[in-house]
Design goal:
Elements (H helix, E strand, L loop, with lengths): L10 E5 L20 E3 L9 E2 L5 E6 L3 H5 L8 H14 L4 E5 L6 E3 L6 E4 L14 E4 L15 E5 L7 H11 L10 E6 L10 H5 L12 E12 L16 H20 L3 E11 L10 H16 L4 E6 L8 E2 L15 E2 L1 H13 L5 E5 L7 E8 L2 E9 L13 E7 L6 E7 L9 E2 L16 E2 L4 E5 L2 E7 L1
Helix pairs in contact: 2-7, 5-6, 6-7
Bound molecules: 2-acetamido-2-deoxy-beta-D-glucopyranose (9 copies).
Amino acid sequence: MLQRTLILPVALLFIGGANAQAAGLPTRNITGQSPWINLPKSMPKFARTLPKNLLGLSIEMDQWPQWAGTTLGSPNKFVNTVLNNIASRTGYAVNLRVGADSEDTGFSVPSVPVYSAIFPNATAEFPFPEATYVAIGKDFYALSANMPAGTDFHVELTNYTQTWISTAGQILDSIDLTFPGAPGLQIGAWADAYRDSIFTVAGTLGTGILDSAAGALVKSFSVHNYFGRHTGDPVTEPKSGQLMGRNTIRGNVTRFAAQVPQAEAAGIDYVLGETNSFSSHGSPGLSDSAEAALWLVDFSLQLASVGVNRIYFHEGVGFAYNLIQPVPIPGNGTTATSVPRIQAAYYGALMVAEAIGTGANTKVAELSSNSTSIAAYGIWEDERLARAVIINSDVFFAGTNGKRSSQTVELGGYTNGKTSIKRLTAPGANSTEVLWAGQNFTLGDPTGSVQETWLNSSSITLEATEAVLLCFK
Ligand SMILES: *[C@@H]1O[C@H](CO)[C@@H](O)[C@H](O)[C@H]1NC(C)=O
Ligand SMILES: *[C@@H]1O[C@H](CO)[C@@H](O)[C@H](O)[C@H]1NC(C)=O
Ligand SMILES: *[C@@H]1O[C@H](CO)[C@@H](O)[C@H](O)[C@H]1NC(C)=O
Ligand SMILES: *[C@@H]1O[C@H](CO)[C@@H](O)[C@H](O)[C@H]1NC(C)=O
Ligand SMILES: *[C@@H]1O[C@H](CO)[C@@H](O)[C@H](O)[C@H]1NC(C)=O
Ligand SMILES: *[C@@H]1O[C@H](CO)[C@@H](O)[C@H](O)[C@H]1NC(C)=O
Ligand SMILES: *[C@@H]1O[C@H](CO)[C@@H](O)[C@H](O)[C@H]1NC(C)=O
Ligand SMILES: *[C@@H]1O[C@H](CO)[C@@H](O)[C@H](O)[C@H]1NC(C)=O
Ligand SMILES: *[C@@H]1O[C@H](CO)[C@@H](O)[C@H](O)[C@H]1NC(C)=O
């Protein structure tokens, strides 16, 4: 998205269907100072529910038909395949939200069958600009029927300039939302691209808004967040090595952590309604690199660990931070492709989905670690430690002559048993060539066989810029 000034105060929910080592310091050789993480004997009291539908995608409205398939009954098969790869790992369809900047330029035009849009000319900074006009036709939203069964579909209504209560009140005048199973309303759904939002749970709900008729139907509070901004200026453009890492991610998550209990107390979900690495469509070469995959794993599990209920990674067509390119992308930029394909960050989503798993009563908590470059999470099923994710955010750049460092992480409290290891690997942080457990998902269906090894001791070695999933069988 572009930086936005317009407040989008209401949305309808249709339930249907590092601090990495500084760039330029590629290797780090720690000897005798092995990091250590703790596997607690029993599930910590502060463990949070790990929702099956934690991961969702937010889709720029002007390109929605490219994702859904441009006609009813003709889905984009590639998109559905790659969404199902994630869904099959959790047993739950990936949530979708359609909205963002271009929703502000959308007009309902019932005479148009599906949609038409006017796009400005591309610029170097924005090779894939957002539409200046979108005609929302008769079947535009009906295209959601093309998506996999069970998809939670969430549409943001456009251009409200009045207060939330009167806006939502107008909606209630025209739609009955009081029947059982009716969609809920969402409040929030705004925020400056990456600066602290002036809208907080306390500042919003503290106004008594929930006491209104519309307020009684609010089911979630939504905020938007980016870690910084793509500028196209070589000086200010984010650099490889600056996205992943414990301090960076925790620094960006802290303000949500404080608000989640307030939303909980009000009985509503807390949702990251639109997020990704860097606003203005991502930083080419960084947002579409292996670093973004590791970032997505750590960020998602960190958010879940503080109680955030759902996360929507923002997507367009041709954007650098996309997990998925739903159609061929012309040109010669880092996102160019002659066929639909996934991008590096998608592998992070696969790993998170597998960490969530299909089991019952799944909870997550961050595990203690005494290294700033090692983050770790435990995942419990019915209070049994079922899995752990460990991320080594030391930065290694492919193509440098330096030796790739590794860290051998001691698993405190590990009791011998059968433990499998799957790895999220890449030649380096700035590489787009990622593999999950040895498999390549570039074209949708995985190629190669699943690589799973077994833990033989109470420690595990991770290369710089690598993450592992341990399954305690
Ligand atoms: C790491 O330390 C070991 C042991 O001191 C040494 O043999 C090795 O050369 C070092 N590697 C790098 C890349 O500095
Ligand atoms: C982490 O803790 C372990 C166990 O106490 C210790 O051996 C190790 O040196 C520590 N590592 C670091 C990087 O502090
Ligand atoms: C949005 O609302 C403002 C204020 O009512 C109006 O000036 C503007 O034209 C509207 N934009 C669209 C796209 O409807
Ligand atoms: C877009 O580029 C074309 C061809 O260069 C030019 O004719 C047109 O005026 C441009 N449109 C806008 C809106 O700048
Ligand atoms: C958020 O992340 C960005 C880089 O990705 C970093 O520069 C910034 O310091 C982080 N913010 C906080 C509050 O830690
Ligand atoms: C890449 O595409 C741009 C815009 O189409 C063009 O100006 C440029 O010459 C191309 N660069 C290469 C190396 O092909
Ligand atoms: C990664 O970064 C290194 C060091 O800057 C550079 O030599 C290499 O070409 C980069 N690789 C890619 C794929 O950009
Ligand atoms: C994954 O598959 C794509 C498409 O076949 C290929 O271009 C790419 O090099 C493969 N990546 C790896 C790491 O094998
Ligand atoms: C565990 O031992 C087996 C058999 O000796 C070996 O193939 C495997 O690589 C070992 N696993 C690890 C993580 O070292």
